[in-house]
Write a structure and sequence with these properties.
heterotrimer; A mainly alpha (276); B mainly alpha (266); C alpha/beta (388); A: 13 helices; B: 266 residues; mainly alpha; MetI-like fold; 13 helices; 77% helix
């Protein structure tokens, strides 16, 4: 079959991406090489400014650690939930709907509520106080606990996406296979490890890749919970450059470096691809 | 073992309902209570004042209509674009690899980097600030495509190619085989994809903020109210936003459960 | 046959696109779009004021309340595209320099009557390579404190330190790395006799030594606080004193927190008196405004004497017009009103952004990294001299 015709059904997708993705991305890259002050192009001024800023390097470190932790938690959590709720548990229809609720809440609202939960005088500390414990500083900048609080909040919000992806994959596993294994006397854990998990591998890899790329661009969660300097990542750093200093070029430079970082970090997965 | 599983799931469900509960509580209690110390888990005074002031504070009806329209159009556009692509990706590894890379490219730049050029593009093409949110659902499609593609492709992969072969041997065209054999079998994936795309568009506010200045969907309105320190009003709008969101979930959820045709030849 | 496959899908999308284009390209009633940073509680009053203009001029005005940052973003996007929707924007004084290229200057002749009535300092802040912005409302900072807890606000620096010691963790600065921090720093530098231009003059050294003394008693999240988050912390009772702009008093009033227990007070007196920083909202007409002439008429209306008096009376705004009396904002705005004569503009120099950044970094080094104030300031000054 002629190769081009094979691509035809994908044509709308490719055309769409060319118009709405390639052009803005190229613009962003061009902007990163344009000196904001003089309008000179090409110029490395933005990169020099950004790499000379201590906050940038903290943002870079944060942008590796935070997404890694978030993806680990959300994939593990999503998998556990999908497996638990694929089985015949009572009330699982309702439970499935409930599990998706954090993602159904608009991000702005969810994060504001979380700010009220983890504030020094928030719901979490109120619960601790009622149980007789001392209040905890959940979101103070520079502390390790802050990192884990942010991870927990973001994972809380996005785990439903992984859950839905894996649930759909699980639903596609033919019942016969599970039945056959059960009849062979395999316990639940063995069934999971030797049958379910391998069948889920493509879906899991897709989930890790997709969620990894999204987690690398994490933005609203650290910004709203800790501000642009509390737990910096590259997207909040770019926003900070743009919003506080009006420096479009530096913001674009940081964004381009984030794109580069994303490619580098996901390269092993990218090369393997998500095709089985 | 089953009991442990049930307990775990119930604990997670409780944790997941917590933000929802707080939003509802803040929506129906006076603003002052949202700042009380110690914070009240249950409402002390129930009131509808937030809901009543809402109409003066922001353009709520317009926002609701626009959000719904944009979300529906995003689902339609995303599925229209992603379905054929996902189908061909599931059938032809070469195309699959190419599309994979293309969609990864879509996830590399943070939204803020793309927002201004996309806004400029919308303006030049005349889709900026449209009362129908035309530029906006096209932007939301960008955000939704990778997820929809992934979920749909997973669905098509689990439908054996032999079924389509069989249909073609019986005289159906490729398109016919697709419509009548494969498509019905990927209903769980279609449901999951629609749900995710709807939520992505319904809740998205980065592009909404930038592409719609006077005709604003609901998320920028929530953001405005939150930023200006009105948790009660913001929560009232959020509670309003939850109704269709949860509705969509409940409607589409049974489709997820539908076990796929016990396929032969996988 | 692949056409059969693809066409039904594409048909749906195509029809949707066609329908949308038809509707959006239909001619709409001409109307002005003004983006102003208004609180939800201020919106009805402002819309009423604008309605007077609509009746008098026959034009329709759509007022869009947004945050300053979002207005700036929309302005930037429209500038890149070369056309847009916004006819009038209000920006805060922080953002004027970076937004200046997108806003076209007024001809002095067009706005002569306003220039005569407006405060010269305020107008100068809006003059960037031409008269691009006119002051819409003035603002300056005052102390915002919890009256129920503190009773009396601190009157001078030693009293402020005593308050911080008595309530550890409950005094906060807006310590995020942004212009708002400079607005917290400069009043203390000026109150100690410093010029604000020189990083290590006697006044600056005195002020930063005072910051070092306060540092151990500040709220732990001061390093990330900005106006909205510090205001929120106060609403929750986590802090009892901070510096902020007049808008927070309206905010607290709508939350039921002002005038009891939250009130305003003048900044504490330093070795050389009191001072505070000039700020506020400025109006500009974007270069891409579709209805420039009409927008100019709206500007005339908004800066007119009776409208400014109305806004001052009903919203407690401080008018840039010299002939509008400061409204009696009651106990809530008393602190602000008392500081009117001590308001100073920030240093007007081309490298102000760099200078401001040095103040911010110096403050953060002294207060959050506990470094020696004299050493930090001298180092900053020599860096500045070297870069010049």
């Amino acid at each position: 079959m002629p190769r081009l015709r094979a691509w035809a059904p994908a044509a709308p997708l490719l055309l769409y991406l060319a118009a709405f993705l390639v052009q803005p991305s190229l613009y962003a890259v061009k902007l990163s090489f344009t000196d904001t002050l003089t309008g000179h192009f090409p110029s490395l001024a933005n990169f020099r400014l950004v790499t000379g800023d201590g906050l940038f390097w903290r943002a870079l470190a944060g942008n590796v650690l935070l997404p890694a932790a978030i993806v680990a938690v959300e994939v593990a959590g999503g998998l556990a939930l999908a497996v638990l709720l694929a089985a015949r548990l009572p009330g699982r229809r309702l439970l499935r709907a409930i599990v998706v609720v954090p993602f159904a809440l608009p991000e702005v609202v969810f994060l504001t509520v979380m700010r009220y939960v983890f504030a020094p005088r928030g719901y979490a500390n109120a619960a601790l106080a009622a149980a007789g414990f001392a209040p905890v500083d959940w979101l103070v900048p520079g502390r390790v606990l802050t990192f884990f609080t942010v991870v927990a909040v973001d994972a809380w919000h996005v785990t439903p996406v992984v859950f839905l992806m894996l649930l759909a994959a699980l639903a596609s596993i033919p019942d016969e296979i599970a039945e056959a294994a059960r009849l062979d006397g395999a316990g639940a854990l063995r069934r999971f490890a030797f049958i379910t998990l391998p069948l889920l591998r493509p879906a899991l890899l897709s989930a890790v890749l997709l969620r990894g790329l999204d987690a690398l661009r994490v933005f609203a969660t650290p910004l709203m919970l800790t501000g642009a300097e509390g737990l910096p990542v590259l997207s909040t750093y770019a926003y900070h450059q743009w919003s506080d200093y009006g420096n479009d070029g530096a913001a674009a430079a940081a964004s381009s470096l984030l794109a580069l970082l994303s490619v580098v970090l996901t390269l092993p997965l990218l090369r393997r691809g998500t095709a089985p | 073992m089953r009991r442990i599983a049930l307990l775990v799931v119930l604990a997670v469900a409780a944790a997941d309902l917590l933000p929802l509960g707080l939003v509802l509580k803040q929506a129906f209690t006076p603003e002052r209570e949202s700042f009380a110390w110690p914070p009240t888990w249950l409402p002390r005074t129930l009131t509808l004042e937030n809901v009543r002031t809402l109409r003066e504070a922001v353009e709520i009806e317009g926002g609701l209509g626009l959000s719904a329209l944009v979300a529906a159009l995003t689902v339609a556009a995303t599925l229209a674009i992603a379905l054929p692509a996902a189908w061909v990706a599931a059938r032809r590894p070469a195309v699959d690899r190419g599309l994979d890379r293309a969609l990864v490219f879509a996830r590399l730049f943070p939204t803020i980097a793309l927002a201004i050029p996309l806004a400029a593009l919308s303006i030049r093409v005349g889709l900026y600030n449209s009362p129908l949110g035309t530029g906006l659902w096209l932007a939301h499609t960008l955000l939704a495509l990778p997820v929809a593609f992934l979920v749909l492709r997973g669905g098509f992969r689990s439908v054996p190619a032999e079924l389509e072969e069989a249909a073609r041997l019986d005289g159906a065209s490729t398109a016919g085989a697709f419509w009548r054999v494969s498509l019905p079998l990927v209903r769980p994936s279609l449901a999951a994809a629609s749900m995710l795309v709807f939520l992505v568009s319904w809740d998205e506010f980065g592009f909404s903020l930038l592409l719609q200045v006077t005709n604003r969907p609901l998320p920028p309105l929530v953001y405005y109210l939150t930023a200006f320190g009105h948790p009660g009003l913001a929560s009232a709008v959020a509670a309003l936003m939850l109704v269709p969101a949860v509705g969509v979930l409940l409607v589409l959820e049974p489709a997820l459960r539908a076990g796929v045709f016990a396929g032969s030849g996988r | 046959m692949l056409c059969d496959l693809v066409w039904p899908m594409r048909a749906r999308t195509a029809v949707a696109i066609a329908a949308s284009l038809l509707v959006c390209c239909r001619r709409e009633r001409p109307s002005l779009t003004a983006a102003v940073a208004l609180l939800p509680s201020e919106l009805p009053v402002y819309r009423a004021v604008v309605a007077d203009f609509e009746r008098a001029s026959g034009l329709r005005v759509v007022v869009v309340p947004q945050q300053y940052a979002d207005i700036r973003r929309a302005l930037a996007a429209e500038a890149v595209a070369g056309s847009g929707t916004l006819d009038l924007v209000e920006l805060d004084v922080y953002a004027l320099a970076s937004a200046a290229p997108h806003v076209c200057p007024f001809e002095p002749a067009e706005v002569k009557s306003e220039l005569d009535a407006l405060s010269a300092d305020a107008v100068r802040a809006g003059t960037i390579d031409g008269l691009r912005f006119l002051p819409h409302r003035l603002g300056w900072q005052a102390v915002v404190y919890d009256h129920a807890v503190l009773g009396r606000p601190p009157d001078d620096w030693p009293e402020l330190l005593a308050v911080a010691r008595a309530h550890p963790g409950k005094v906060a600065f807006k310590g995020s790395l942004y212009e708002g921090l400079t607005c917290d720093v400069l009043p203390f530098v000026w109150a100690a006799g410093g010029s604000g231009d020189v990083l290590d003059d006697a006044g600056a050294l005195a002020a930063f030594r005072f910051f070092a003394e306060l540092a151990p008693y500040l709220h732990p999240e001061s390093a990330t606080f900005r106006e909205p988050t510090v205001a929120e912390a106060m609403a929750r009772g986590e802090i009892v004193l901070h510096l902020n702009w007049p808008f927070v008093m309206s905010l607290y009033a709508s939350q039921g927190l002002s005038p009891e227990p939250v009130r305003s007070a003048p900044l504490p007196r330093g070795p050389r008196g009191r001072a505070t920083v000039l700020g506020g909202g400025y109006l500009g007409i974007p270069c891409n405004a579709p209805h420039r002439a009409a927008a100019l008429r709206l500007v005339h209306h908004l800066l007119a004497h009776d409208v400014q008096t109305e806004l001052a009376r009903r919203l407690g705004w401080f008018s840039p017009r010299g002939d509008v009396a400061v409204a009696d904002g009651g106990e809530a705005l008393a602190g602000f009103a008392a500081m009117r004569s001590e308001v100073r503009p920030r240093p007007a120099r081309p490298d102000y952004a760099a200078l401001s950044r040095r103040w911010q970094e110096a403050f953060r080094a002294v207060v959050f990294e506990h470094r020696d104030p004299d050493a930090v300031l001298h180092a900053a000054a020599s860096d500045a001299a070297r870069d010049r």
